[in-house]
Write a structure and sequence with these properties.
disordered N terminus; 14 helices; seven-stranded mixed sheet; eight-stranded mixed sheet; homodimer; 455 residues
């Protein structure tokens, strides 16, 4: 590709509808130039992922991550940094799981235990596998499941353009699959990973046991191995699988939200929250999920400070303590805000990957949404044009529900997210520096406008 | 990230403004479902890149690629497939180039000769390096350049959101840099790669010698090595570099555009062209540049055929013979179309990477652009919202200029393009299947609407 004749038209400025709009456009462009030229988020992420790595709540790595967050917020120029203590779950994977097809030639499957899953007995489980396409198929086969392993081979729907819809559709097999199988006497479950990746990485994520039924071991397998297993069963309906997992749920332990503030100049007791979750699955570096949300939030504070953009309200960057296997950090944050009768104007989250921005999901009144839409020409030059959806924000959802705070979440392009989500491939190398920075710019611009004009 | 509560709202359908709009929406959704569920483009690309690889015009690999293109268009269901012969340049790199800082500890630089560059003398060139920031700096230092190597350390501007603007700004150093240095007696040039990648890959691309001055060897270095060289020169202004390149320009040779047609049912003698270029740089697999444009164009034909979408005009898929170091394929295509007095309605190209779509650049009249904009709600669900720019389409540009044919080019998200553009890292693994498919959908939908309603 060569484009010698490409004209140097338009460098991101938008036509000024009026003087105010023009001033905002210039300020946002300054923020963008600073972030694109001198941004620190990518290097912050490198340190978080490469020197700490996976950081499940309760792990020693998560303690290191909290210290990293504290120090990084200080370096970014926060007026105040503090920890907010909360109790968090403490699930550990133990020795690596083994899942294999039993036979003349035993075949190892690329598998991973689901979060919160119990262990198999110490000697593992060997049993025949019954494949089911979906829950209806499970019901149809319920009389065959006693003493068997259930294999949920539910496919991630490729026809949704926004991949979070495919996830919303498929994730019930991870959440409810084990208990639904256990109620019919199954000994364990294998699920097809929630992904349409072109590789064979297995994807973890929490399951949720129904207390009415026995808790049985649950693993996910990579897509190629799910297809392989399905073929084996078709060729030999008596196919047996061996599963051994070594997970344990220990007593709850202490975790911390890490909070950094830029004090508001006019309304210091009004808050705007922006954050991501600091914890990640143990098997991944937690780069897109959700290292990027953390470093983007810190970068906004750094940029405001560097450029002398003084918010009227207090800007609070929150690195939430625990999202993956609970949401205890967010629960505590909302609880304390309610106890203290804090006034919160808006809460924004980035937890859908550090990909190139498309817009925001916004859960708020129509009038508030329309106010944000009236700024869309200021955000469009940086890639954000889509403001129409409700949804998003597991962590900020707590304060949204507890205090009625309007909330939003960055909507990055979603095509690559479920290739790496909860898989060992969620590593730093899969984050693109410019995409990460553009997400930060759109978030920083939205917060700037909300702080300036209210909601 | 978990989103148990994510609602299954909206699966990409747009609200129907009227019955016609609704029918179009349904047809486009069928195309999208087919491409997202059964698309072949990603596997086509795997074969092109992994079994053939780099394919510079005139190379044996390019001959293989032409055969691949012919067969793949046949398999996709084209009514007719044929070759269109043209003469193409025949430049060969020869043995791998060597560029190193001379000194007590000689340091190899990650370097690559520019396309069309001449070779150094057989024993190489060793000379002092003069660093210049830009052409103004070159003019200021013109009296120091005789017998030296000029190092253009011009930085890719990170503040343009659309990275093609950074390219348009920087590429003159690759195109004109060697001759501008040669006019002041320089022996060779080194340029900083046209990229803001976070790695050290060198990026090639054609240079253009001015016949008034001696032709001197030209290489590009990776960004880390550009910074290293700059530091060395700062520490020791007498720093010398050794350069040895082995390129040759052989006599022009025969190449072919590969063309596949779906014959129009109503106006078979009116044409809509869609294509990409089949050639690539020798050092890369040419995945994004421009394997993706080729497989997307073929996939549109396959999808129309599979779904029985019969175009009124003849749809011509063109895999252009030579874009990287000339544009001889496109030149020939326009020449033949003019000779035959063909009526062309529209020409579309994909040559900006197989990334997630953002829109189209459109070079046409305001009335025609407005017609396309009136369909934007049909394209938005697949990610295309930006229809405002002129530009694009090196290959279709020939028919645009020769016959006044309205032209367009897919505008994918550009953030990752210049990380890999013309570098050894432009490989299959850096293409995402869903992003590729979404680009195809938006292209296929635009062509469907133009064929149906005219322009």
């Amino acid at each position: 590709m060569k484009k010698y004749l490409l004209l140097l038209l338009g460098c991101g400025f938008v036509p000024a509808a009026n003087a105010q709009h023009n001033e905002d456009s210039i300020t946002i462009r300054k923020m963008a130039n600073e972030i694109l030229s001198n941004g620190n988020a990518y290097e912050d992420l490198r340190i978080l992922t490469k020197t700490i790595g996976g950081r499940l709540a309760g792990s020693p790595q998560m303690v290191k991550a909290e210290h990293w967050g504290f120090k990084t917020l200080e370096n970014a120029g926060a007026d105040t940094v503090y920890y907010q203590e909360c109790m968090v779950p403490h699930w550990v994977r133990g020795e690596k799981e083994v899942v294999k097809i039993v036979g003349a030639k035993s075949l190892n499957l690329n598998a991973i235990a689901l979060g919160k899953s119990v262990a198999t007995p110490a000697k593992g489980i060997t049993a025949q596998v019954i494949e089911v396409k979906d829950f209806d198929d499970l019901e149809a086969k319920k009389d065959q499941l006693k003493g068997k392993i259930v294999f949920y081979n539910y496919h991630f729907n490729p026809t949704f353009v926004k991949t979070f819809y495919s996830y919303g559709d498929a994730v019930r097999y991870r959440g409810q699959g084990p208990s639904k199988a256990a109620q019919y006497g199954a000994l364990a479950v294998i699920i097809r990973s929630m992904s349409h990746a072109t590789d064979n990485q297995p994807h973890t994520g929490s399951t949720n046991y129904d207390s009415k039924y026995p808790k049985i071991a649950a693993v996910a397998v990579g897509l190629e191995d799910a297809d392989l297993l399905s073929k084996q069963i078709a060729a030999n309906p008596g196919t047996k699988v061996f599963i051994k997992t070594n997970c344990q749920t220990l007593p709850d332990t202490i975790g911390h939200n890490v909070i950094g503030e830029l004090r508001g100049s006019v309304y210091p007791d009004e808050y705007i929250t922006v954050g991501g979750h600091l914890d990640s699955w143990d098997v991944a570096e937690g780069a897109h999920d959700d290292g990027t949300g953390c470093v983007q939030s810190i970068e906004i504070l750094r940029t405001y400070k560097k450029l002398g953009i003084q918010p009227k309200r207090t800007l609070r960057v929150v690195l939430f303590a625990n999202e993956e296997n609970g949401a205890r950090g967010a629960e505590k944050y909302a609880e304390v805000a309610k106890e203290n009768n804090e006034k919160h104007v808006f809460a924004l989250e980035s937890d859908a990957g550090g990909f190139t921005p498309r817009g925001f999901t916004l859960s708020m009144s129509t009038a508030q949404r329309n106010k944000i839409k009236s700024w869309s020409s200021l955000l469009m030059p940086y890639g954000a044009y889509d403001f129409d959806e409700e949804g998003g924000g597991v962590d900020v959802g707590f304060i949204h529900r507890a205090l009625g705070v309007p909330m939003g979440e960055l909507s990055p392009d979603s095509q690559r997210y479920f290739d790496i989500h909860h898989a060992p491939s969620d590593v730093f190398e899969n984050v693109n520096k410019r995409e990460l920075n553009l997400g930060t710019i759109t978030m920083g611009a939205l917060l700037y406008l909300i702080d300036k004009y209210g909601l």
